[in-house]
Task: structure prediction
Amino acid sequence: MRRLVLSIAVVVLMTCVISLSLHLKLNTPQKALTPPILSQHAYAKMKVKLFTLVDQQNPRIAIEWLKKQMETDPNARGFCHELLHETGRHAYGKYHDFTKALSYRDEVCVAGYIHGVIEAYFKSSADLFTSIKMVCADHPGGKYITWECYHGVGHGLMYYTDNNVPASLDYCESYDTPFARSACANGVFMENASADHDNHPSKFLKSEDAFYPCDVFPYKSDCYMNAPVRFLATHNNDYRRAFTWCHDAHEYESDCIYGVASQMTRRNMGHEEEMQTMCASLTSPKNGTCIKSMVVWYITYYGRLNEARSLCDRLHQSNKPLCKKVVAAYVPQL
Result:
């Protein structure tokens, strides 16, 4: 009997120690995730440099220059997608030839350059419907670059329609496949969520409801995935609060969490330890969704697998299998 009591006491004590360790791990203050901040002056200076390189040489030289900046400057990494959108638009303005401008394409920074070229091409198109049909026609089905092309169409439609979400989605509906329509809608909602209030405003945003207009239009998964862009912009990039807010997305909570994790990774590359801690604060399977989003961002950011494979090596042992599974799933797409 004494031995049984002693055994029970040991088990209880071990349980308490484990619980205490877990409590301390989750409640000990972690190093803050601090997103990069690029001042308007610094952003404008980098944009001028990129435009000058496009004008005096070509877009590839400009993109390579930005890649060099990204190696040492977290601000350049954090805002390269926006900068390459502008570079793509400028390149099309130089050549006035879609094929020529796109010949300098680079998938880096989530294909920002390609998106910018498509935006400018649509804006100048005399027959938008025909342009929509042909712009991604040469891309093979099921590939990452094909999804990015249709996603870029969504951005371009918003640029063409002055951020008219329903009109843009109607154009997306002209595609024959769910793959193309969804990717296009995803671009529409991303452009809407990141709309510039001063220079390129959208009527389809509500300051008091960052989920709007997800409850109004179809392609809700794509909309809820991009809603965190707006929430984080208006809540000082508070990722923990954003993950909690996603609960209000109900059946689309997973899409919302995926979107928060994407934005977190976008602004904090190189801080995998802190990001894993943030993901670990979520319950299963949400924590897995968070890790998956991190890995996918590394793949789409560089447009290749090398950096994602390196990321898998740096992650905690418990996250390595999922990381490697995500990378393997992307092999046929690249």
About this structure: The radius of gyration is 22 Å. The chain has 17 helices and no strands.
